[in-house]
Amino acid sequence: MASNVLQWIERKLTDPGRDDTLKLSTDEQTKLSWAKRIRTPAEIPDPYRSFFDGLPAEKTEPFPYAVLSPTYRGFLQPEHEKLIVRIDRNIWVLKAPDGRLTTVCYPLADIVFIETGTILLNAWMTILGKDTSGATRASTWKYNSVTDTLFAPFLESIRATAVGTADGTAADTSAFDALGHSSFKFMNYARRSILPGERALLTILQPEIRRSLPLLSALNITRQVSPAHLTILTDHELIQIREESSWRTTKENQYGNVWRYVPLRKITSLRIEDHGRDLLTLSLNLVGKGSLEAVFQASERGRVLELRSALKTAGIGSSVVEPTAA
């Protein structure tokens, strides 16, 4: 299989216009979507060599943690190949879709938001933050989910900057015990989401919200207003975990999940808005241009207001906006 893939790559390099992907087996095509760890200078693809050649020797010895995300066609909007590199307290995103190298450098302390998601074999990571020029930027890379562990060190580095260095204390997950009665799956997701030394203060579990389509009510067809999601407030972060699915009618058929992590110090304001008598929206504005929203049933108002009070205590009270009626 490996030799076939290498031959296919060689043909594409010598004749870029030739499209013979279908001549590869399904397994071989899948392997082209795998991310790859770059461990030595000899493994650096040619378009990115000039970046490493310009670094001081102390930045490349030992070789920095680097992962090549492929040109990924598993999504409706394909993503071009990128090389993600962690050097000191920075994450670099390199790309060269037309052979011309461009780079973006994100200081870890200036990253505002991280999202990771998996839908079947499609996985991605997005970071939003200020680059070294002070501009707010966002970068996304996509890959086959079988290689998602390669990107875990980037996520851990970013989150550790917000949470701080662990002192050996285990993560406090006792706040999640009650979730076992309503969603064993979300309880396990929550426990996996907390870093050592981090403490969960409050959780809000919102089941999926669906509404009937009036014109198709006889067929029992509904639309999704909001996927099931879990909001977690820790002493350092706000974490959102939500289900992700394609369009469906009445059958439960979940396809994947999305995790979002926001350092509390990156939240600038909060708004709670009522929508009719049975829904409310929690909106968070972040440093720069970022924002997050979550829809809740009105029955969760008490918990959402607890979250608002906790965020005030965390130091953003002066910018919290009171609920407004629809």
Give a short summary of the structure:
With 326 residues, the chain is of the alpha+beta class.
Describe this structure in words.
The chain has 326 residues and is an alpha+beta fold. 20% of the residues lie in helices and 37% in strands. The chain has 7 helices and 18 strands. The strands form 4 sheets. Strands 8-7-6-14-13-12-9 form a 7-stranded antiparallel sheet, with helices on both faces. The radius of gyration is 22 Å and the shape is globular. Residues 246-253 have low confidence and may be disordered.
H-E string: HHEHHEEEEEEEHHEEEEEEEEEHE
Biggest pleated sheet: 7 strands, antiparallel
Instruction: List the total number of helices.
Output: 7
- Rounded to the nearest angstrom, the radius of gyration is 22 Å
* End-to-end Cα distance: 59 Å
The low-confidence parts are 246-253
Adjacency order of strands in the biggest sheet: 8-7-6-14-13-12-9
Question: Roughly what fraction of the amino acids lie in strands?
Answer: 35-45%
| Oligomeric state, counting identical vs distinct chains | single chain
Count all strands and give the number: 18
Helicity level: 10-25%
Q: Mean pLDDT score, rounded?
A: 83
- The rough form would be described as globular
Classify the secondary structure makeup into a structural class: alpha+beta
